[in-house]
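Quarterly update from the structural biology core.
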Amino acid sequence: MPTVSSSSTMSHVGGASPVMSARTVALSVALSLLVLLPSLFAHDDSWTFYSSSDRYPVAANGPPGQSKRGGANPPGHNKWGVAGKGPPGGRGPPGLAGGSPPGLHGKHPPGWNKVDEISSEGENLPDPDRESIHTPRPNNSGNDNDNRGPAGPDGYVPDSNRFPQNRQCRDGEFRCRNNECVPQSARCDNKADCRDSSDEELCFANRNQENGCVLPEPPEGGHYQLRGCESRHCTKRPGDTVPLNSILTYSCKDNYVLSGNTISVCVNNEWYEPPSCHKVCPPLNSTTVDITCSYQGETASCSERVLPGTRAALACKSSYKLPLTNDPAYREITCLEDGLWDQRVFRCLPECGTSIAHGNTLVVNGFQAKVGAFPWHVGIYGKKRMNQYEQICGGTLISNNLVVSAAHCFYDEVYNKPKDASDYAVAAGKHYRDWDTKEEYTQKSMVDSIRLGGRYMGARGNFAEDIALLKLKTPFELTTLVRPVCMDWDNLYEREQLQTGQAGKVVGWGKDIKGESTTSLQEIAMPFVPYQQCLSAVPFDFRGFITSDKFCAGHLNGSSVCEGDSGGGLSFEKNGLWYLRGIVSVSPVKGGSCDYNSYVGFTSISHFRDWIREAYVSDT
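Predicted structure, tokenized:
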């Protein structure tokens, strides 16, 4: 039997055999395919870009599993959603049935919508030369028919490339601004169905019509402002609908007042308690009447404009009274719907001319007046320097803000003109002459204006029309110690009082017989003197000063008035009331001082009655 040496056997083990069996060849091919297979189907970015050219029709014939697109698809690959040809058997790579992406047999990529099923492939698509942006974007619309095409597993086709400008939507669809079509029912449903959200634009008015309030017409006599609509570009008008929670701010025109809250809010499609404007009556003010207002049983202010239906109760103030004649029958007035009061506020007259005390001490041919004996008498003070005043004349209070005095107290004889009212002040309820003396009941005021008798010319006119009216800046509060004298507007008692044997009283701080000013208020009784008796008794050169607007009163026994008493009033009592009849004007001079043994000339109040009444009505 033949034998084989061991060396030959070893040589075959270390090298390649020149001859293989068929089984060995088959195994070798299989191993090679296993090595190459991953590279054939490896992910390549050049295939994940989805361009518009992939959407156009392809040739029916091409290499197995390929589409004609200017370049071959990888074997076994076709466009999305199109069943192309693959290797024999119509299959693509393992796990890719019909050439679709893994696990997507005839389906769309996750999160994306398919191309319009009723369109032919590539229909209604943009320029095939433009490629998409490789940026993944999820689909939030949930609409399976929004005509979106895929762009591969990690990319998408932008709106500008998806929907052509000439696209027409079907009936029952809404065309988005990006030419996308969505159901009409998706319009203004508070959810963005268009990818550009244009289905929710311009929905303000539509929503308001369902949930909101209609802007009302402005109220009569007023207007409102829609909050957030203050600019001139806001076009909201009455009749337009505004959303819930809108706010209107109301205001009223002059002579109208707001009733209710100033704002109204849109709640449950209605304006909540919108206010209204009502025509109002003017406020009520009076210096002589206390006015108490009420509205619907509640106390209201009379000093402000009031609503129709407001009632005002009227009563005279303290130290005032209703006139004896022409007494109004009403004590209450009502504000009417037309903004007018049904009656005027009547005027009460001061309780005038009442005295609470009488002098009892004789001081140099006169009496020292007690406090309150002549509450109508005031002292007139001239300004010497800043905040320093000196008593120069007297005056008589005829209302809470009017004083009657003599014109010569306020006239500049050098320049023949009135002096400035700001140089004077008035004190009432004062017993002591000095301005700075502290007295409990004294009231003071600066002078606001001075009116002199119409043709007053001072000494050049023989002191004719020697009368002045002073209006106070601060009206006095009338009390028992500050009270006006009575004015006999109808001259009821003048003839009775200005006759022989009747005496009136004058008060003042004038100089005494020694030529010294008194420190406390003095009073003196001075009887009326008939005109002819006066002329015959006074010095001849003084007669020219007894002009037609004057009368005489006084004594020839050394009791008289003097410098400092000028402007004071001569008043007569009738039935417990004192009436003003004259103003201290002129008296003869003797030895450079007053002639206490001569009569005094008084300016007649009745001569200037109408002039005084005019000022009384207009200034009080």
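Residues 22-40 form the longest helix (19 residues).
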